[in-house]
User: Fold this.
Amino acid sequence: GWLRGNMKAALTVIPMEGWSRAALYDETSLAWVRPSPNMRTVATAVVYPGTCLIEGLNVSEGRGTDHPFENIGAPWIDGDSLAMVLNAQRLPGVVFEPAVFTPRQIPGVTNPKFKDVECRGVFLRVTDRTAFQAVKAGIALVSAIHTLYPAQLTFRDRGFDRLAGTPVVRRMIVDGRTPAAIAAPWKAPLEEFMAHRRHYLLYK
Assistant:
């Protein structure tokens, strides 16, 4: 692309010491520095690739609480019902717990969705970070909310499609396709990519 054709630089890559690919950030001696005001902890970062999809809905992604992107809910959701539907899917490495929370305006968070309004929903408790698949969990979450509350749930403009990277995910959810069916087309391309990238990994 443009960068490849126009970049004129002598690039030297200096490998890190003392880190292996299996180690998550809190398994190092480094202090966590928020890359974003709402990326409060490593736990937030673990769930974010999936629960960021909630930003494209009229559902709170937990901004304005102590657990952004781990708390998911809205005033019209019943947390017990949502947790039951999600836990029945036995997604690896995560348990969905009924939750009640009220988004507030706090430093770094201006006008969160449902500000000062009690929301009910779920808290994502990740039990095994190596088994947990954030994007699949996020799609299961959106799908379950759509299944239970099709009249209340709305997709915000084209925001959800931008977050998902395609309108296909939204269309399949609306059409009632299962999370497994939505993820199935990724399997072969993902396996191909993972095999290809092995040759270029700097850290094993």
